[in-house]
Write a structure and sequence with these properties.
heterodimer, A: alpha+beta, Rna Polymerase Beta Subunit, Chain: C,domain 2, Dna-directed Rna Polymerase Ii 140kd Polypeptide, Chain: B, domain 3, Hypothetical Protein Ta0175, Chain: A, domain 2, 6-stranded mixed β-barrel, 5-stranded antiparallel β-sheet, B: about 300 residues, alpha+beta, Gyrase A, domain 2, RNA Polymerase Alpha Subunit, Chain A, domain 2, 2 domains, 4-stranded antiparallel β-sheet, 7 helices, elongated, protein dimerization activity (chain B), DNA-directed RNA polymerase activity (chain B), Rpo3/RPB3_RNA_Pol_subunit (chain B), DNA-directed RNA polymerase (chain B), RBP11-like (chain B)
């Protein structure tokens, strides 16, 4: 075996035996591929965080789940019964008895069989049941509702909130912590990793969404801010504050031209703006001096700043409020109407509540809020003065991730809040309407509750099924739809990338500017630069890099401030701090102190050493963002982040050689070498563990991707996801609408090391094909490929499509609701041999098809009996292709107590490759099979080897997919020596080249060093004039197959409105504008007419020669004859069929009438004049309405043109045709 | 006239020695372009059960390639062509199993005389003269996974589906020309030959299949090809300059010489190019899948080319 010198010895094995063993006997402890459980961890752990028993570390908190925290934040609602008489005992306003209502507890159970079902022995419900029965995987949610009666005694009641969808493999899932062996026993894949919900049998997941980084002030410069109102400018600073229950409020501080600032926030989708001075005073009752000093920070020489602060203070004088209490009262007075707070609260209490709930909500203490607002003001003024630059909100530095569980918690919280609001509203309505209200009467209270919708489960199911967020507050998000996607099991690559994809937000998809789509250097290592679709979602839909993690558990950082103080940080409450010499130290958007820049840098270094070495209890996931002073760059400071939802990734810290986790904020200020060789002494701080870590999983799977032109790697990431592969190893338990399966998938000879890591061999995606690069026969032009016919006959790339058909008797078209229908064959079906009904060939007596039956369009697929008429009806197979019945699945009801009403039939459609099917190598080289060439005519090598696939050499020069050429060599050598070739990118160098390594292997196998071989023409037997590049390349069969694309047709169904054929109506391939251009250029006008007119919406229409109207046709029934009385000159003019122009006839009749009047009165009656008349150039005027409407002609026009004329007429535009 | 039996005798004597057999081309027009005085020769270098390696000399390129093409695609064999599935409770769908059965090589010795093409037969859809009947009846009653292999295929006497009296009396002598194991899966009656795996079944699964094997050639379907590969080479030193060897620095280091180069004289560096030269020595290696022996394949080709 050849051995490349100077290279590490690889383990060149395909692991075939190990894999087979693992597949036959899945491990009983743990899973076969543990990394799969790691990469969905953010999904599952964020869902687990909902619950008190999440199993996540508690951090600084008490370890309570998001739901408990939400309940705490919701608080209570207060309502009065209106019985008070306004005396001292019941309050001055006569509110009467006070009732407090709150939710004390919320529980979500694991999915269980309903109580109604008495027979089930296994009470747990497993995901496979939901999947196969096309139901949802849900657990029951209960809340404990509490209220106080008149005596102040607390009453409580459990309320059912419906069934809440449960994330598979989460802490509430019955598959939690199961080993691979157990998973297989429960009809799952051995590699099942969960992270999704099952809604109506579909696997849906909540996609990651990019949000602004929480608790961090960013400076914005947006010209649109100036349009917000008079004196607004383009400057603002913004902070997205997140509470511990993961709900957030965004506070924006706008700079006004007069130097002051306005705080903006949103309450129930309504924006409010408050002068910042009002808030500052209301928070701590600060004096003007306190505010002045707080902003100036001894920088008195800075006249820009002092001017602004002076203006700020002066501008507030007009409000004539001096104390904090006055400000709170003012706020409370103004906001009382919208906040719906208890009526008995004072204005000051309402104002305090507003500030607590709307301003800097990530901080509890007003003093700290005050400090943070001062910091924001300082940053705002620094931005305006140009001392610091605006931050880029599109950069991952200022971004974090909306975790599925956090969104779920937000929705549940809001629903619970709405329940309380609804109860309060209902009671208040009753009080207002004078209905007897008795807080002591439990029956009355039950009646109230019955009017309130408690079904949170249905709301959540709806959210997951549609991705639409129905929310009165908007949840501080920029979009209301598109949160969830289906996890399609098209193949393993597509499936796993769903769980790693991250979207920028639906809002940005509509944006005309493309700046948000840009690939920024800040994204290095967090978002994959290769794995993004091309087309409309390009750059918006990204995928996380392979090693990128998302922090999901809170960290214990309470001791960090004191630790930093001990090492030289000045505390935040120190009386006089020089803002010129100190920079701010913040922890999670909370000012914890100040420090000189050198000290801050030293603190940052210390923290990093402590956290990497695990000393001083500094958690590894703490992000230490030290922004040095730069004057014109980013605003300096030491920003520490410990919260959830941050993107982090592992690198090696050079100072101590330990593993470090770095975040997207701090990475910007680091020097990370890609390889150990690149380390620059004194500059580099970190080094990547692996140079391929910045790629996503899929991008990592492209062999030798470092040899390819980068767009080709992007294409491969797309095509890998469209490949017909192995969607599942539990195919018998899948009910997907459509599954594509490759029958003979193989493990690639050439594969990156990560191929094994991510279980790619458990779900093979293609076949190793012998590929010759040669221009042969001409059938390989323009990316076409020639398939060896014998290869095809031996089963190359043979595929199968599984389709689902559901027969639901509850929902039969044409049958009334609640019809009495039963599966089976009725008495009206003759069974005897000679008169047997044709359906017996397909159906059994139970009305269901035999497994293995072959079906063509129109064959019987099920039979049912109408209980009323006792007649048998049939359901027929409607597909165009021949299909086999693969499975018939009987679906019962939830409680399992009703007769069979629903079956799920899996149909198997065979798809041997045909001419026109699409194939691709793993290098973005796709092509269509153009010919199946007989084996004897194929070129062959001296050893008698014939290619399976022939591709054209022209596929290479412009696309520069050298990786494919290297793969071909490596595959050939690997096949000869029995090696699994490592194709990990960045393994070779200029000194140790891939060509040399594989060339030596080829030489050792007796082949030419470069992989070329002399080949012979199969037809003449003569040696080709040039040697041919031939090797082994892994080929994928793409799911785009000609059979799915309708091709040509002459007639068929058309759109009722336009009468044109369409794709929806079994139409052919569209003959579009560019095709039209081609025909025009060729001058083939008959063909053009045939395509665009005769085969489309050809129609004939009557057109009036006089007025040119297409739409004024009228018919006279002249078959009966017409009689004219009097001396009127003639019959009404009409065509031979009685057709006439209604417009012209009406005009003629009107003229006649006028003439008749003129005759009768002897006067010349003027034409009635319209108010406005338009003069039209005479060349545009057709004939006057002279011929009295009888002069019509038949013309051939596209029907849609007549439709256009009618539409235009409805807008008051007449279309006139000139007939020659 | 060319006599197959005579040559077969000759071949059976030859092992790996370099023995020249005078080889007579029946029709003179095959060698019109060749040197008239030389007779075509076949020298067998190696003969094994499933492969033969020989050197064909004194024929022209067209003839040599025809030989290759006929070996690959025109030698009839029998293979399972129709599958009637009675029971299939395995995990593999019917059509996959049918496809796999088709690929199983069946012993097709003397196929020319021992069986007819169904299209040439006087029967309507198949009879004993043009078809073979094989059955596969397996069920697993064991707790272990069971391999269904080609060894489970049993040849049974052809059962006429239609009323036999309707068929005319057939005077065919095909049945008598068949060897003992004609139509049996390759390797079934031999020791140490691993059978072809068809499916794996577990307890309770069953496969009951009736197969009809028919005669055909590889032009119809790859399964009828007796050869798994035919290697073919001439002019290992590229003296004729039919091809150009692409090289980067050193043609000798980058292009390994083929084994067949030992048979020819290396060109001298100063040797002038003879543009009139024609290839006349062809190195063949034929490997079969066992349905036919390599010598039978080669002999049949000769016969076939002679009869054209």
């Amino acid at each position: 075996m050849p051995d490349g010198s100077g290279r590490t010895v690889r383990k060149p094995t395909f692991n075939t035996l190990e894999r087979e063993k693992a597949f036959r006997q899945p491990p009983k402890d743990g899973s076969t591929y543990s990394i799969l459980n790691e990469f969905v961890a953010p999904h599952i752990e964020s869902f687990n965080a909902l619950f008190d028993d999440s199993g996540l570390p508690a951090g600084d908190g008490d370890g309570r789940g998001l739901l408990s925290l939400a309940l705490k934040d919701i608080g209570e609602r207060v309502v009065f019964d209106g019985t008070g008489r306004g005396d001292s005992e019941h309050g001055v306003h006569g509110w009467g008895n006070r009732m407090r209502i709150w939710i004390d507890q919320v529980t979500i159970a694991r999915p269980m069989v309903p109580e109604k079902d008495k027979t089930a022995k296994e009470r747990r419900v497993f995901p496979t049941e939901a999947r196969e029965r096309l139901t949802s995987y849900r657990g029951r949610m209960n809340i404990k509702l509490c209220w106080t009666d008149n005596s102040g005694q607390t009453q409580e009641m459990m309320k059912d909130c419906g069934l809440v969808p449960i994330m598979v493999r989460s802490v509430r899932c019955n598959l939690r912590a199961m080993s691979s062996a157990d998973l297989v026993r429960h009809h799952e894949e051995p590699e099942e990793f969960g992270g999704y919900f099952i809604i109506n049998g579909n696997e849906r997941l909540i996609r990651y969404l990019i949000l602004p980084r929480r608790n961090h002030v960013i400076a914005l410069l947006r010209p649109s801010f100036a349009n917000r109102g008079p004196s607004y400018t383009q400057y603002a600073v913004q902070i997205r504050c997140v509470r511990s229950d993961q709900t957030s409020v965004t506070n924006t501080l706008h700079y006004l031209q007069n130097g002051s600032a306005m705080l903006r926030f949103t309450w129930r989708k309504q924006e409010y703006v408050i002068p910042i001075m009002l808030i500052l005073k209301a928070l701590v009752g600060a004096s003007d001096k306190e505010i002045f000093e707080g902003i100036m920070m001894q920088d008195y020489d800075n006249t820009f700043l002092s001017d602004r602060v002076e203006l700020l203070l002066r501008s507030f004088k007009m409000y004539t409020m001096h104390t904090g209490e006055q400000c709170l009262e003012y706020l409370g007075d103004k906001f009382r109407v919208v906040l719906n707070l208890p009526e008995d609260w004072s204005n000051a209490a309402v104002g305090a509540w507003l500030i607590q709930k709307m301003v800097m909500v990530h901080i509890d203490s007003p003093r700290e809020k005050f400090r943070m607002l001062l910091f924001m003001l300082r940053k705002l003024y620094a931005t305006v003065s140009g001392e610091c630059c605006a931050d880029n909100p599109d950069s991952p530095q200022h971004q974090e991730v909306l975790l599925p569980g956090s969104l779920y918690a937000m929705i549940i919280k809001e629903r619970m809040e709405e329940i309380l609001n609804a109860i309060r509203g209902t009671i208040m309505t009753e009080v207002r309407n004078g209905v007897a209200v008795d807080f002591n009467d439990k029956r009355w209270f039950n009646k109230i509750l019955s009017k309130v919708n408690f079904d949170i489960g249905a709301k959540l199911s709806n959210f997951l099924a549609t991705g639409n967020l129905v929310s009165p507050t908007g949840l501080d998000l920029q979009q209301a739809s598109g949160f969830t996607i289906i996890a399609e099991k098209l193949n393993w690559q597509r499936y796993i990338s769903h769980f790693r994809c991250i979207h920028r937000g639906a809002f940005f998809a509509e944006l005309k500017t493309t700046t948000v789509r840009k690939l920024l250097p800040e994204a290095w290592g967090f978002l994959c630069p290769v794995h993004t679709p091309d087309g409309s979602p390009c750059g918006l839909l990204n995928h996380l890099s392979r090693t990128c993690r998302i922090v999901t558990s809170p960290l214990a950082v309470a001791h960090i401030p004191s630790l930093l103080v001990a090492h030289g940080m000045t505390q935040a409450f120190a009386p006089s701090i020089d803002g010129r010499k100190n920079i701010c130290v913040q922890l999670d958007g909370r000012v914890i102190g100040w420090a000189h820049p050198e000290i801050a840098a030293q603190l940052a270094r210390n923290l990093r050493i402590w956290k990497t070495e695990g000393k001083m209890d500094v958690p590894l996931d703490l992000e230490i963002g030290f922004v040095p002073e730069s004057h014109g760059g980013q605003y300096p400071g030491l920003y520490l982040f410990s919260t959830k939802a941050r993107m982090m990734r592992p690198v090696k810290y050079l100072a101590n050689g330990k593993n470090d986790q770095i975040g997207s904020f701090e990475q910007v200020y680091m020097d990370i070498a890609c390889t150990p060789e690149e380390i620059e002494q004194g500059v580099s701080t970190h080094v990547e563990h692996n140079p391929t870590n910045f790629l996503s999983i899929l991008a990592n799977l492209t062999p030798f991707s470092d040899f390819n032109q980068s767009p080709r790697n992007i294409y491969q990431c797309q095509m890998g996801k469209q490949t017909m592969g192995t969607p599942s190893t539990a195919l018998q338990h899948r009910t997907d609408n459509k599954l594509y399966r490759l029958q003979t998938g193989q493990s690639p000879v050439v594969r990156p090391a990560l191929h094994n890591t991510y279980a790619m061999d458990a779900f093979p995606n293609g076949t190793n094909a012998i590929v010759a690069v040669i221009s042969y026969t001409g059938y390989d032009m323009e990316d076409a490929m020639i398939l060896n016919k014998s290869t095809h006959e031996r089963g190359f790339a043979y595929g199968t499509v599984y389709k689902s058909q559901i027969v639901d008797l509850k929902d039969m078209p044409g049958a009334p609701k609640n019809a009495d229908l039963h599966f089976g064959l009725g008495k009206d079906i003759p069974l005897s041999a000679e008169r047997a009904h044709p359906c017996l060939e397909y159906l059994d007596f139970d009305g269901l098809p035999y497994v293995g039956t072959r079906l063509v369009s129109g064959d019987y697929i099920a039979a049912y009996i109408d209980g009323v008429s006792q007649r048998t009806r049939f359901v027929k197979y409607k597909g165009d292709e021949m299909a086999y019945v693969d499975q018939v699945r009987l679906l019962g009801s939830d409680a399992g107590d009703s007769e069979l009403q629903k079956v799920h039939i899996t149909l198997r459609i065979t798809r041997a490759p045909v001419i026109g099917d699409k194939f691709a190598s793993r290098h973005g080289q796709k092509g269509v099979c153009s010919q199946k060439w007989p084996a004897v005519d194929m070129p062959f090598s001296e050893s008698g080897m014939q290619p399976d696939v022939i591709i054209n050499p022209h596929a290479f020069p412009s696309r520069m997919t050298i990786g494919m050429l290297v793969e071909s060599m490596a595959g050939k050598a690997g096949a000869m020596h029995g090696l699994a070739q490592d194709a990990t990118p960045f393994k070779f160098s200029e000194q140790d080249t891939a060509v040399n390594y594989f060339g030596e292997q080829l030489l050792a196998a007796g082949y030419n060093y470069h992989g070329n071989e002399p080949m012979y023409s199969g037809i003449t037997g003569q040696e080709f004039a040039a040697d041919i590049y031939i090797g082994v390349v892994y080929y994928q069969r793409l799911r785009h197959m000609v059979l799915d694309k309708f091709q040509v047709r002459t007639t068929g169904p058309v759109d009722p409105v336009t009468r044109q054929p369409g794709r929806k109506r079994a139409g052919g391939i569209r003959f579009g504008e560019m095709e039209r251009d081609a025909l025009i250029a060729h001058g083939t006008s008959f063909l053009l007419q045939d395509r665009l007119m005769n085969c489309s919406d050809y129609s004939t229409a009557w057109v009036c020669r006089t007025c040119g109207s297409l739409i004024s046709l009228g018919y006279e029934d002249i078959s009966l004859g017409e009689m004219v009385v009097g001396n009127s000159e003639s019959f009404k003019p009409a065509g031979p069929g009685g057709e006439y122009c209604r417009v012209c006839r009406a005009a003629a009749e009107q003229r006649d009438e006028l003439e008749r009047q003129a005759l009768a009165t002897g006067q010349d009656v003027q034409q009635p004049q319209a108010d406005v008349r338009v003069a039209i150039p005479s060349q545009n005027v057709l004939n006057r309405a002279g011929s009295k409407g009888g002069d019509l002609d038949v013309v051939a026009i596209p029907y849609v043109f007549r439709y256009l004329c009618a539409e235009l007429a409805s807008m008051g535009i007449a279309v006139s045709l000139e007939i020659r | 006239m060319f006599s197959p039996s005579h040559v077969t005798n000759q071949l059976s004597l030859v092992t790996t020695s370099s023995l020249c057999i005078p080889f007579e081309i029946p029709d003179e027009h095959y060698i019109t372009t060749m040197q008239e005085d030389l007779e075509p020769t076949v020298r067998i270098r190696e003969l094994k059960k499933d492969r033969v390696n020989f050197v064909l000399g004194n024929v022209d390129l067209a003839f040599a390639n025809s030989l290759r093409r006929v070996m690959m695609a025109d030698i009839p064999t029998v293979a399972i062509d129709m599958v009637e599935i009675e029971t299939n409770t395995t995990v593999l769908p019917d059509e996959f199993i049918a496809h796999r059965l088709g690929m199983v090589p069946l012993i097709s010795t003397n196929c020319d005389e021992a069986i007819r093409y169904t299209r040439d037969c006087i029967c309507l859809a198949g009879c004993a003269f043009c078809s073979m009947m094989l059955v596969l009846n397996v069920a697993c009653h064991d707790d272990n996974t069971m391999d269904v292999t080609s060894d489970h295929l049993e040849v049974i006497p052809y059962q006429q589906a239609d009323d036999e009296s309707l068929l005319p009396e057939d005077p065919g002598e095909e049945l008598s020309k068949r060897t003992e194991f004609f139509g049996h899966p390759v390797g079934k009656h031999e020791q140490g030959v691993p059978p072809v795996l068809i499916a794996k079944i577990r307890k309770g699964q069953e496969l009951r299949i009736k197969c009809t094997a028919k005669k055909g050639i590889a032009k119809e379907h790859a399964k009828f090809s007796p050869c798994s590969a035919v290697s073919f080479e001439y002019d290992p030193y590229n003296k004729l300059r039919h091809t150009t060897y692409w090289y980067e620095t050193d043609i000798k280091a980058e292009w390994p010489l083929s084994e067949n180069a030992k048979e020819e004289e290396p060109p001298r560096d100063d040797e002038p190019f003879d543009f009139n030269a024609k290839p006349n020595k062809f190195y063949f290696e034929v490997e079969t899948d066992g349905s036919l022996s390599p010598q039978e394949v080669v002999m049949k080709v000769h016969k076939r080319l002679a009869l054209v």
